[in-house]
Amino acid sequence: MDFQEFLARLQSIVGEENVVHHSDDLLVFEYDGSVDRGLPRAVVFPASTDEVSRILTLAHEAGIPVVGRGTGTGLSGGAIAPPGGIQVAFPRMNHILEVDTENRLALVEPGVINLNLDTHVRKVGLRYAPDPSSQRACSLGGNVAENAGGPHCLAYGTTTNHVLGMEVVLEDGSVVNLGSLARETVGYDLRGVFTGSEGTFGIATKIAVRLLPVPESVRTFLGIFPDVGSACTAVSAIIEHGIVPAALEMIDALTIQAVQKVSDAGYPEDAGAVLLIELEGLRDEVDEIGNEVEAALWDTGATQVRTAEAAEEREQLWVGRKGALGALGSIAPNYFLVDGVVPRTKLAQVLGQVAEISRKYDIPIANVFHAGDGNLHPCLLFDERQPGAIEKIVEAGTEVLQVCVDAGGTLTGEHGVGLEKKEQMPLVFSENDMAAMLSVREAFAPDNLLNPGKIFPDGKQHKHTAHPAAPGMTI
Amino acid sequence: MSSITDRLVGLLGADAVLPVDGYEVDGLTPQAVVRPGDRLQVSEVLRWASAERLSVLPRGGGTRTGLGNVPQSADLVLDLGGLNQLVDYQPADMTATVEAGVTLASLQQQLAPGGEFVPLESALPSRSTVGGALSVGAGGPLAHAYGLPREWLIGIGVISPQGVATKAGGKVVKNVTGYDLDKLYTGSLGTLGVIVEASFKLLPIDPEAGALMASFPSLSASITAGRKLLHSPAAPLGYHCVTSGVSPRLPDFLQTASQDLGLGETGSILSLAFFSGRAKATSRRLEEAAALLLAEGANTVQQIEGSVSSGMLGWISDAPSEMSPDSALVMKLSVQTKSATSVSAECGEITLFGERPEQMTDPGFGSIRLFWPKTTGDTGEQQFLETIQQIRQIAHQHGGSAIVEQCPLPIKRGIDVWGDPLDSLAVMRRIKDKFDPGGILNPGRFLGGI
Prior knowledge:
By secondary structure, chain A is α+β, with helices and mostly antiparallel strands. Chain A has helices at 3-14, 23-26, 49-62, 114-122, 140-146, 153-156, 190-194, 228-240, 253-262, 283-299, 311-322, 324-327, 347-361, 389-406, 431-444, and strands at residues 19-20, 42-44, 66-69, 86-89, 96-100, 105-108, 126-127, 163-169, 175-179, 203-210, 212-213, 217-225, 247-252, 273-281, 304-308, 334-337, 365-369, 378-382. Among the domains of chain A are: 3-89, Uridine Diphospho-n-acetylenolpyruvylglucosamine Reductase, domain 2; 102-213, Uridine Diphospho-n-acetylenolpyruvylglucosamine Reductase, domain 3; 217-322, Alpha-Beta Plaits (2-Layer Sandwich). In chain A, strands 15-12-14-13-17-18-16 form a seven-stranded antiparallel sheet, sandwiched between helices. A five-stranded antiparallel sheet of chain A has the order 5-6-10-8-9. In chain A, helix 1 (3-14) runs antiparallel to helix 3 and helix 13 runs antiparallel to helix 14. Chain B folds into four domains: 3-81, 2-Layer Sandwich (Uridine Diphospho-n-acetylenolpyruvylglucosamine Reductase, domain 2); 84-204, Uridine Diphospho-n-acetylenolpyruvylglucosamine Reductase, domain 3; 208-320, 2-Layer Sandwich (Alpha-Beta Plaits), CATH 3.30.70.3450; 322-414, Alpha-Beta Plaits (2-Layer Sandwich). The model of chain B has no long low-confidence stretch (mean pLDDT 95). In chain B, strand 5 (86-90) and strand 6 (95-99) form a beta hairpin. Chain B is α+β, with helices and mostly antiparallel strands. Chain B has an eight-stranded antiparallel sheet, with helices on both faces.
């Protein structure tokens, strides 16, 4: 089958208006939130499971690689089209099919935007806990593919802890159900291994997620610290008190400067670090633990502590953190974002090493991260117009990952391996470890037509292109 | 001495080879039992067994040996009890790495000085091992709050059937590097590889615990009240209802507390709710929950102090194992939580040789255990099959599944204890074939005869 015939058959499945194939129109699908690019040969917008199934059956027959694409906010190149491949995107499959308050679950299509689901279920006193910072834009299908995290995953776990079941379409177009609406299922935990498989196992067409009750009380604390070291001590002190906050976030001096340049988040210009802590639960508990948190912040050298309970005031404390990545655009045209994780006790040490790498390469590095679970987000700032800049950044980024791994950590906490970190996989996993993983992929997708060329090293360094730091980008 | 035993003595030394007594699985006596002292020895045994095409049945504490289908064969039992070291525990990181043969009780004891615990629950924790609990992968009495073992596992070390050491995940609490094989191994009943090591994320031990015991005039009243409680701000970590055939098994230390509940009356239902947290919040929860249960029709409600409540939690966790010897048939259903009331009512009508089942219901997690008592003389196979089929239909109608946890061996040989095949079974089979092409690990014991 030649590509023209393939296109015609795609069009017959979803209608001409739902297949993008002119090169100008395809440009917007060339990239995601990472530094990688790849032009798809076509992008198709199905409206139903049946259409997804027919698309995959056709692509399988034609031997054309396919990748599901959510909204393109991914940060590791997961949704970048494989060479010669097409994208299946879900703007038409964006329905919340059911909210079951008695079972506390929602059944959604993959194109539903994360925040829309949360906002919708809050009307009935429930919430969807995983909250990637891109939650205003990212979709549940993409969240499942990447096992997305977010600030509140510290207390509630990542996407995988909230997915009960899925309907997925496999490489050959067959439709299977993984997990169930019950909390326990029989057989292998396929929905567990599917979640975070970065689009290489199948395409989820319906997703059942758990909903949690909205807590009785929420309180946010913002602590200003003279330096990152003392803020890290505060993190340890909180955890030593037997406290697991709902969220525990940090931003460093360079980020604070960037944030303040864009809009006044109320941070002192000379602040060395800002720590954001959110507590949730019964009012009595939030009061008691809140006092301990506040004391711990002062004890470890905070120069200012602010608290807020009303939703709007809390939002105000979060503004700087949530706008941090976009604000970096005010100090550099481009950034390269690393997603390494380290044991919580190694935070201060590793941040010190990251600062050394920054000096060694003469690259400014801003840190905005999930301190509570040791998930760093060093942002390497650069200007892509300078010759050799990207190569230097990628090299420095690899060094940062090496430091994380040496400290007992890993390559990625929530962004995925994708194209970006596949060549670094051997830093963490042996040939045998990866062979075991690949055998699961072979079981799901024997012909390797779903998002091929991702996650595992193949010596093919993808062509990097810089992504401009811009307002609205989030981590 | 069989030649298999000779070869194992040659491989690992005489100390590692144990008598086969007590290691029978579903009436099959293994040809040999081996207890390696470390993961290298596990590798050696598996490499050899793989080459010889011997079937291998991994074993932890032997508390759930009856779970799963009758094995196709049982050449070798691989006892992981020798791998019993806490490898790494950093209280400040709130993570721990442990060998698979460590018992749950021992692990919790070693974490307690750090003020932490792993929310990994299993019956008989002084025998049940980490590797066993992961392989079974089931939820415990507080699963409503803590979920399944899968939620807490952050890294795993596994020896493949060919003897190759592999790992997945890591030692950090958030990790999407590579496929999440942790999830695949958890609940795979040792059919894909032998778990030798596991890393967990931990939780701080709450300063205050407490519980409520209540009696209700009927099971449906207890479940309905429980669901209201579970959806209230005073929500417990777990809520359980047990029928009158189960409650007389309460241990002595709870008998006094339970005397005022009037459980002796026919049909009265014992309900238990477990709480923990900071002192003040826990008191508030206990108070509000007691008021709610009374308002929802409880006959009486009794508050249980912290130290006694942990014993009570142990009891409800172990109760299924205690009920088993007197039961002809034990089934466990997992259904949508909202269906607990109707499923419980429907199942209560399904008889075996004229007897209705005793029930243990967890309406917060959607888990229901049914115990049909042993009756003298009745062994009609058709009766068992009909009862099992009826229960499965009920489970399916409510979006769930029903597994047979215990039944007479002749019945077990003829059924798949896990239930009807799923539409994803083909993928599961392909995974099994990739991981264990020789089919040596626990052959036939898993869903669909995997």
